[in-house]
Amino acid sequence: MSAELQIQNITKTFITRQGGVGALDNISLDVMEGEFICLVGPSGCGKSTLLNIAAGLESANSGKILLNGNPIDGPGPERVVVFQEGGLFPWLTVTENVEFGLRERLPKKARREKSLEFLKLVHLDKFEDAYIHELSGGMRQRVAIARALVLEPRILLMDEPFAALDTQTRDLLVEELRGIHDKLKNTILFVTHHVRESVHLGDRVVLFTFRPGRIKQIFPVDIPKPRDPDDPRIGKLIREIVDALHGEVEKALAEELKI
Question: How far is the C-alpha of 192 from the C-alpha of 62, rounded, in Å?
Fold first, then answer.
């Protein structure tokens, strides 16, 4: 079985006034159709940069990313990004935000019907006519997820979408996202700093080194979903990932403090 998304030898360097700063170094990863991949690592290790390259928002210095054998050379409707800040339009209603990307694809009635279908999926159909400022942080992220899913992308790219939320709301949305993935079977690349979150959601957890980011280790999560947070296998795997991550975080702190 061939991979849906093939990340091949991706290297990225950013040019600053101080010179070149390596973001990614020779990243290779095959992602299967319907797989949920979580990317973890210290701040500045290039996780978000890799997501942006996969989205076609940035280019690599070398290497390539293939989607079903075709090189990615720019944004495309089969790949949609959900950012930490949802990027919603405050002057539009919830439904208008969700259907925004469908304006050139469907007539008005069909757009609304499809938008309501996905608002139900994220439990926001009762707020279809609300404005963004009337919603809580968690509800806004649900709108952002619905806006991405309504486009029916083959690849969903999520860059720390729950980072700004309180713990209770975050835990609830993690469980909702798991249910959505079980239903829709999207292929998901998910960036997070939250190891427990990655183990709860991911089929595999990919650990990056400190800058320039390399793949240090890949952890398969061979635990059936839905996963019981009290399952001792989850606790064991979290400890393994945290232990492997610890040295990379120390390197990041040393760099930040210029030790």
Answer: 25
Nearest to 98 by CA among 76, 82, 75: 82
Torsion angle defined by CA atoms of residues 92, 85, 100 and 102, in that order, rounded to the nearest 10 degrees: -160
**Do 118 and 98 touch, CB atoms closer than 8 A?**
yes
**Residue from 184, 179, 101, 175 nearest 143 by CA:** 101
The whole-number pLDDT of residue 1 equals: 60
- Is residue 187 within 8 Å of 155, Cβ to Cβ? yes
Name the residue among 205, 201, 203, 209 with its Cα closest to residue 177: 201
Residue 150 has what pLDDT? 92
DSSP state of 210: S
Strands (E), the chain: 5-16, 19-31, 36-40, 62-67, 70-71, 79-82, 155-159, 187-191, 204-208, 215-220
* φ/ψ of residue 254, rounded to 5: -60, -40
Residues in CB range of 176: below 8 A, 6 or more apart:
122, 123, 142
pLDDT digits (tens, 9 = 90+) for 176-204: 899 999 999 999 999 999 999 999 999 99
Q: Rounded CA gap, 148 and 118, in Å?
A: 10
CA atoms within 13 A on the CB side of 86: 24
User: Chain centroid to CA 65: how far?
Assistant: 16
In this prediction the pTM is 0.92
Say how far apart CA 191 and CA 12 lie, in whole Å. 18
Give the 3-state secondary structure of residue 30. strand
Cβ pair 233, 219 in contact under 8 A:
no
Task: Give the angle subtended at the CA of 16 by the CAs of 10 and 19, to the nearest 5°.
Answer: 85
